[in-house]
Design brief:
Keywords: Transferase. It is a single chain. It is built from 14 helices and 8 strands. Helix 10 (220-230) crosses helix 12. The chain has one domain: Rossmann fold, CATH 3.40.50.300. The protein is globular, with a radius of gyration of 19 Å. The protein is an alpha/beta fold and 318 residues long. 39% of the residues lie in helices and 10% in strands. The strands form 2 sheets. The protein has a 4-stranded antiparallel sheet with strand order 1-2-3-4, with no helix packed on it. It has a 4-stranded parallel sheet with strand order 6-5-7-8, with helices on both faces. A hairpin with a 7-residue loop joins strand 2 (16-17) and strand 3. It starts with a strand and ends in a 12-residue tail after the last helix. 38% of the residues are buried.
Length: 318
Amino acid sequence: MAMSCVPEHNETLSIVEKGWKPFELSQYQGFWLPLKYFSETMACREHFESSKDDVILITTPKSGTTWLKALSFTVLNRTRHDLNNHPLLTRNPHELVPWLDLDLYVDGKIPDLTNLPSPRLFFMHLPYELLPTSIIESNCRIIYLCRNPKDTFVSLWLFLNKYLSEDEAPVPVEEAFELFHRGISLYGPFWEHLLGYWKASLERPERVLFIKYEELKEDPAFHLRRLADFLGCPFSDEEEREGLVEKIERFCSFESLKSLEVNKIGSTRLGGENKNFFRRGVVGDWENHLTEEMIEKLDKLTQQKLEGFGLTFKDAKK
Ligand code: A3P
């Protein structure tokens, strides 16, 4: 958990936190970014030219990004791709929806994104306050997905431990919890990340759609319709009659995606094994991993942070 001074050429970074293995995090304007990808993020913030038709998916890590990518890609491209012969059957969702800064601005190089078919579909983890200004100015659509903090933390902790090499000991839950609770986590503090998008969704609901994992889990069909309406391509009467909404729900379900061969083998460009993006996919698994003390501490902090903003989670508490 040692903190060190940052390289002096990088005046924008204030401190580096080594404790959240395997990524060193650097604090930038109040948020914790992975130091390894700092040049990608900064190049994207400076050079990305957004268009009004863009759709940007944004999540806090481990809140169901893989699922949101599958759902959004399928809804947006449903006239182009039949479910029986669909790209998701042979490609992992992360391959189909690129990570705007980390996948496209590799080593800080500026890509040509002008020829991508419209609407361009991208994904990011950046907090609202750090988005490239062109994303705000273009008035493009943002879809934000988040999840209750206890499940998000457990999923993140277990996922990051999978990134460690064989000779590295897994990070104990107590150590990871301490950092998360202090706000030190990938793209954290977690609560400030939520609030940035929550407020934006209240101010500009036609441009920022706010979704909670727990509600998506409870009624995927409702949210698929909401997603399609938001994207300006509502399901037609004919699509409704043929049950397309329910078909997409089943097609993108945890069980269905997890069972595909492509999601059992291979890795994403950044090195995450495809299979590790499908663990349990339920609400409330935190009960199997957190102590009573941790639960109490996290609940209390969440209440303090979100109280007054009208943002709450159904997290399957006993
Ligand atoms: P758990 O670790 O709790 O199982 P991300 O995609 O942002 O990395 O989030 C991963 C989490 O979403 C994991 O949670 C994973 O199991 C869950 N997940 C992945 N695909 C899903 C799907 N189709 N439906 C519901 N949950 C899904």
